[in-house]
Design goal:
Blueprint (H helix, E strand, L loop, with lengths): L14 H69 L1
């Protein structure tokens, strides 16, 4: 019936109209799915970037604390050496 073959020779939908509608439908479905996946990936990347930033900040603060502890320890030694 859709191709106009057999007894439907005079009663059919032109092939261009059928394929265009199906192509458009499939294209829209694929685009919608792609957009959804793209949004999800962007959100995941954003979450990863935020986690990395927080982790880097914690590591920097930990290093500062370690450096400060070393400085305090050295200052105490120097202070003791001044008194002797």
């Amino acid at each position: 019936m859709l191709t106009g073959k057999g007894k439907y020779k005079n009663n059919y939908v032109p092939q261009d109209n059928v394929s265009t509608s199906i192509d458009t439908l499939i294209s829209n479905m694929v685009k919608k799915h792609f957009d959804q996946i793209n949004l999800e990936l962007n959100q995941r990347l954003s979450n990863i970037e935020e986690l990395i930033s927080k982790t880097n900040a914690k590591n920097i603060l930990r290093r500062i604390d370690q450096d400060n502890s070393k400085l305090v320890s050295e200052l105490k030694k120097d202070t003791k050496n001044l008194g002797s």
